[in-house]
Design brief:
about 425 residues, alpha+beta, SH3 type barrels, Alpha-Beta Plaits, 5-stranded antiparallel beta sheet, 17 helices, 8 strands, about 10% strand, rod-shaped, stress response, Mechanosensing system component YbdG, cell inner membrane, cell membrane, transmembrane
Length: about 425
């Protein structure tokens, strides 16, 4: 057929050389028209059909592929493929130019494949960002590694085609540049290795509350990338931590608290030791009116009376036998109060204990867990508990120890002045 067209052109008095140029030009025009028609049809029909189909389906993946222009870049693959295949018949009279044209088309095709792959990875990242797996694995780090690999391979292919060399030659010589590559991509390599360790050992996820004072980080993890981990602190500032620093330096992760469903409350009240004494009949009569304390007093007092009677204790002297103290009764009340508190988790550690006495009194420590781990609610719960505890101390004849203030000194001065006037 090519010979037929050549003879037809030569019938107009055109020489063999010129006829080949004319025929080649005509075939280039026809090939260009076919490529344009193919792209127009794909854009106007196939892409519209895919877009309509994606909008009607229930899954969000196809919508994300459409949003990130994956279908559009996929359609761009057709023209270079056609050009690559048209090069041989169209340029058959100029075989030396076929290789050049195909190399240029290959470069163009490689660029489109790179952009298409990166867009597809972006769509997958957006899709899995709302999936439960996103909280367990640093998907962004893995996707960034894949992007780096794809871009590197694509760049090698493009450079190889521009230099007229086989890409295999460049890949085989990469070992000689390993030291340079490691130096350039040091943070990326360390971050990738750290990301694998973090995900494999399940050390940190997006949404975890972590604490790393060296980097000023104390808040929720909002992003885990190939190189860095971003933490939104409680004051809404963002701290950026190198991913490998989490492995090499260590950090505190509060996820265990969230998973357990309880947040620790540990507070101490320093009791003035001079206010500690045995409970007399009058105090016991008042304390029995406290509903939470009444069962304890009845059971405890019965046990004490039985013990003293069995051992023929002389109760006229308070130090003989066993007696209730105001501090012990106060601790019993704290146990009953917190056991009945709706915001305390009874399944976790529950302690009301004395600590070592100091020059600032004897500390009574509350060591319990709230069942609400939200920061604001947690602070409100322990504040309400401490308000209540401080308010009931006088009912037990106890005083909180605190260093003398200016008001205390002024009150003592006023009393001395009154005593002096009276004398």
């Amino acid at each position: 057929m090519i010979q037929f067209f050549l003879e037809y052109i030569e019938s107009f008095g055109i020489g063999p050389v010129q006829s080949r140029i004319v025929l080649t030009g005509l075939m280039i025009v026809v090939a260009g028209i076919l490529v344009v028609i193919a792209e127009v049809m794909i854009r106007n029909f196939l892409l519209r059909a895919l877009s309509a189909f994606a909008r009607k389906t229930r899954t969000t993946l196809d919508d994300l592929l459409l949003q990130h222009s994956v279908f559009r870049w996929l359609a761009h693959l057709i023209p270079p493929v056609l050009l690559y295949n048209f090069a041989v018949p169209v340029l058959q009279f100029y075989p030396d130019s076929i290789g050049l044209v195909q190399s240029l088309v290959t470069i163009y095709l490689t660029v489109i494949v790179i952009v298409l792959s990166l867009s597809a990875l972006d769509a997958l990242q957006s899709y899995f960002s709302t999936h439960p797996i996103a909280g367990k694995m640093p998907l962004k780090s893995f996707i960034q590694v894949l992007k780096t690999v794809i871009f590197t391979i694509g760049s090698v292919i493009v450079v190889a085609k521009l230099l007229g060399k086989s890409p295999i030659v460049f890949f085989s010589g990469i070992g000689a540049f390993t030291a340079v590559i490691i130096l350039i991509f040091k943070d990326s390599i360390l971050g990738f290795v750290a990301g694998i360790q973090l995900s494999t050992n399940n050390l940190v996820r997006v949404g975890d509350w972590i604490e790393m004072p060296k980097y000023g980080a104390d808040g929720d993890v909002v992003d885990i990338s190939l190189v860095t981990v971003s933490v939104q602190n409680w004051d809404k500032t963002i701290s950026t931590i190198p991913a490998y620093a989490l492995i090499s330096e260590g950090f505190k992760n509060w996820r265990g608290m969230s998973d357990a469903g309880g947040r620790r409350i540990t507070r101490s009240i320093n009791i003035d030791m001079q206010s500690v004494r045995f409970c007399d009949e009058e105090m016991l009569g008042e304390l029995e009116r406290i509903q939470l304390l009444k069962p304890y007093l009845e059971s405890r007092q019965s046990e004490i009376d039985e013990y003293n009677a069995t051992h023929d204790v002389d109760t006229a002297m308070p130090v003989n036998g066993r007696r209730l103290t105001n501090l012990g009764t106060f601790r019993a009340y704290l146990v009953a109060y917190l056991r009945n508190h709706p915001k305390i988790n009874p399944e976790m550690t529950f302690l009301i204990r004395h600590l070592q006495p100091t020059e600032h009194g004897i500390p009574v420590q509350i060591y319990v867990f709230s069942n609400d781990i939200v920061w604001a609610n947690y602070e409100a719960i322990q504040a309400d508990i401490m308000d209540h505890v401080l308010s009931i101390l006088p009912y037990f004849g106890l005083r909180v120890f605190q260093d003398p203030s200016g008001g205390d000194i002024a009150a003592v001065g006023a009393l001395l002045a009154q005593a002096k006037e009276a004398s």
